[in-house]
Amino acid sequence: MNEIIQAEVIRTGPEWASIIRNDLSRAVEGIVSAGQHLAQAKAEVGHGEWGPMLRGIGISQQHAHKLMQISQNEAISNHSCVSDLPRAVTALYELSRIDPDEFKQGMEDGVIHPDMTAQDAKNLGAGSGESSAFDKARKNLSAFEKNATSIADLDQWDQLINEADTTFRRIGGATYLRLKGEQ
Question: What is the mean pLDDT of residues 52-72?
């Protein structure tokens, strides 16, 4: 009987460093892969090897933590089209912190895109402040549109449009202006 026995391979810090450096050279897929490998490496490397391994890669403990958090976020790690996601670690990290429903909505609305900055992602996940202001402006416009009955309502309509535009500019920044064709 020729049985092949597979032994679990335990890698050293320098071996993990080589694998993770390779991961980081592959944009979003690499960032996710690096985070997964960092989590595995952290569990496997011997006591006292974690710090030297990170220094060998050229990343800080904080950066390693961000990579691991990104890789643990199912919306990012399982997203079917990684070319739609920002390539910056800080932007991906901020996206990994938002609610999965907000992530999905951001993808559908085109708010999440490859050129998204970390600040854009942070604003998207701002929660009650920025996000609710955006939602409030959108709901006000929808409600008014449904209930407008006369020409006299046009002044109020213009006021709501101006308020919504101001809110969208504040929240969306460069992304909103680009979508409007103003940049």
Answer: 93
